[in-house]
Amino acid sequence: MAYVVTDACIKCKYTDCVDVCPVDCFHEGPNFLAIDPEECIDCTLCVAECPVNAIYAEDDVPPGQEGFVALNAELSKLWPTITEKKDPLPDHEDWAAVEGKLQHLER
Ligand code: SF4
Ligand code: SF4
Fold it and tell me: From the CA of 55, which ligand is nearest?
């Protein structure tokens, strides 16, 4: 099993999660982070850090967001590792409560 970043992260990218990950398995895209399922050790530390509750265990991903499991696996291979927190995206407050943002995901 691994942990998975889901829809809520898109266009927010707060990055609070990356500081606590002991194995540096977060990877950064333009407006989303992805967890490498082959590196994640299921420590759960990142879950409580995310201000928009975007991170779930693979088996607990909310209904309708199952596609994010494969998406994290795919995108984490394409994007560079991020290990230090940075500022969220400038308009993160406008998007934090919006659901169904997959069409806005940039690669
Ligand atoms: S803390 Fe949450 S919103 Fe921020 S980058 Fe991590 S998963 Fe995305
Ligand atoms: S569960 Fe642990 S190892 Fe996996 S992404 Fe979160 S902090 Fe990293």
Answer: 1
